[in-house]
Design a protein that fits this description.
Layout (H helix, E strand, L loop, with lengths): L2 H9 L7 E6 L15 H4 L3 H7 L3 E6 L9 H8 L11 H8 L9 E10 L5 E3 L7 H14 L2 E2 L2 E7 L4 E7 L30 H18 L7 E8 L7 H5 L3 E4 L3 H9 L3 E2 L7 H11 L5 E6 L1 H7 L3 H19 L5 E5 L16 E7 L12 H5 L4 E4 L3 H8 L9
Parallel strand pairs: 1-11, 1-12, 2-14, 9-10, 9-11
Antiparallel strand pairs: 2-13, 3-4, 3-7, 3-8, 5-6, 6-7, 12-13
Helix pairs in contact: 5-9, 10-12, 11-12
């Protein structure tokens, strides 16, 4: 932990001010030639966000380092005030904890996608057409009955949402220093899981045998007849947001991974927070008096970006705008709207592009920006800075930081 992190923790103080961090996953984008060289934020009709922007201050976030494309884990860790280079964790542990699995020291968790493959095993769809969650549950039950142990290592399989599921290996001599099997594009065979050091060679063997057993179990099923494995990880140790920032924090999210990450930084996770934007925002109103830091996660800006669906990404932004007055009813003292990374529709993937961010409070001031868009954020008063420093601005605007020095 660097000296700046230590300083913030020394200066932080508690009060009754409420901070709301609204994360539109993958919100950042780049101009799309087919839509008037606009981004989804520019293309969307957002009267409520526009009104808020005129009384806010804006900027751009660098999620990890310039030019580095982040996963969702490091992207969110930065927003919560944790240096993602210091607190590395795999996607598997986040999803597993989010699903409520009891992960013990020494266990290895990893995230899987059901996928479609041809007769030669070549991947034709990395997400198996985004099969419904009910189908995922059915397939996980099938695999769980036939694959319970490999070479003395207990295998636990749990469904997540749509095409996603989680696997936990529990036993002796396991190590998470492994490569992923996901080739990250269609038209290729899944990669062999490889050990990154001598200690993890045994676990790599177990993982590759697991893949072979799964393929046997799924070979006659369509469209989910293969899997991709990624994010091998053990249980991390990290201080909570209460310990570091004196924040009684709560997570309102529908996807297990974001619940898992929130649990690992000490947030209370509301299991039934809702699935829709409307439900998540209403749940915030219900809990407004119980916590002083609220994290609300909106997923479908990201998934539509990954699907290359520019228009639908804009529709989700308009849905957020429609229900924005709901969370404004309680007048959070500090409202921050941003994303964990960019997911340009033209790229159909996460990217390194800077993330738009907007902060509204009684003390934020205002700049010349009139809309919450990438270009408007470029001229915003916050400038461009690393995501891990966002928490400093949120605490300062909530008057939760004492003066430094005499």
């Amino acid at each position: 932990m660097n000296n700046g992190d230590n300083l913030i923790e020394k200066l932080v103080t508690q009060n009754n001010q409420k901070i709301l961090l609204l994360v539109l996953d993958g919100i950042g984008d780049i101009p799309h030639r087919s839509y008037g060289k606009k981004t989804p934020l520019e293309y969307a009709i957002t009267p409520n966000l526009d009104k808020l922007a005129r009384n806010s201050v804006m900027g751009r976030l660098i999620p990890v380092l310039p030019g580095v494309t982040p996963g969702s884990g490091p992207g969110h860790l930065g927003l919560f005030g944790y240096n993602p280079l210091e607190y590395e964790m795999g996607r598997g542990i986040l999803e597993a904890v989010g699903l409520g699995l009891d992960i013990k020291d020494g266990d290895i968790a990893f995230r899987c996608n059901f996928a479609s493959a041809d007769d030669n095993g070549v991947i034709t769809d990395r997400r198996a057409g985004r099969i419904p969650t009910e189908k995922c549950e059915e397939l996980c039950d099938l695999l769980g009955q036939s694959i319970q142990e490999i070479d003395g290592i207990k295998v636990i399989i749990r469904p997540s949402m749509q095409h996603r599921f989680v696997v936990v290996f529990s036993g002796q001599n396991l190590c998470d220093a492994l490569t992923d099997s996901d080739p990250l594009s269609e038209g290729r065979l899944p990669l062999e899981v490889k050990a990154l050091n001598e200690k993890s060679e045994y676990t790599a063997q177990i993982a590759n045998r697991f893949y072979e057993e799964v393929r046997k179990g799924l070979k006659d099923l369509e469209p989910a007849n293969s899997i991709l494995m990624r994010g091998f990880s053990g249980k991390p140790r990290m201080p909570s947001m209460m310990e570091r920032f004196k924040l009684n924090a709560v997570c309102l999210a529908s996807y297990p991974m974001y619940k898992g990450l929130s649990k690992l930084v000490g947030m209370t996770v509301i299991d039934e927070a809702g699935q829709s934007i409307k439900e998540l925002f209403q749940k915030y109103n219900e809990l407004h008096n119980k916590y002083d830091f609220f994290f609300i996660h909106v997923k479908y800006t990201d998934s539509n970006g990954e699907d290359g669906n520019f228009v639908q990404k804009s529709v989700i932004i308009e849905e957020v705008d429609k229900w924005l007055p709901t969370i404004l009813e309680k007048k959070p003292n500090v409202l921050c709207i941003t994303g964990d990374h960019s997911t340009p529709a033209a790229m159909k993937a996460h990217s390194w592009h800077h993330i738009p961010v907007m902060i509204n409070s009684d003390y934020c001031g205002a700049d010349e920006a009139t809309r919450f868009t990438e270009n408007e954020c470029n001229i915003g008063g916050l400038g461009t800075f690393e995501s891990k420093h966002l928490i400093n601005y949120l605490l300062a605007n909530a008057m939760k930081l004492n003066k430094f020095g005499a």
